[in-house]
Design goal:
The chain is an alpha+beta fold and 94 residues long. The chain has helices at residues 26-37, 62-65, 76-84; strands spanning 39-46, 52-58, 71-72, 88-93.
Length: 94
């Protein structure tokens, strides 16, 4: 999640800038689309802390998500606050 771009085109907070679709090479766009179609994710707050957890894995790993600790719901403001405060945890689910 990034904020609006600055007037000079630089991305906020050192994030990579969003490229207009016409500047993304067609083969890369196709590969990213194929990868995105095969991924599943869950986003929520950790049960024991206020960290926001992003769980990400291939669709074939979906059953394993059920064995992980539950995540509480997190709204956009909570997600943004966690990102700003470096409390965002990314977990890869095999």
């Amino acid at each position: 999640m990034t904020g609006p771009p600055s007037p000079d085109g630089a991305a906020p907070d050192g994030a990579a800038p969003d490229l207009p679709p016409e500047l993304v090479p067609p083969e890369l766009a196709r590969q990213l689309e194929a990868l995105g179609a095969g991924l599943v994710w869950r986003v929520g707050k950790d049960e024991l802390s206020d960290d926001v957890v992003v769980r990400l894995g291939y669709a074939s790993a979906t059953p394993r998500f059920a064995f992980l600790p539950r995540l509480r719901s997190a709204n956009d403001a909570e997600l943004q606050a966690a990102l700003n405060e470096n409390r965002l945890v990314i977990e890869w689910v095999d």
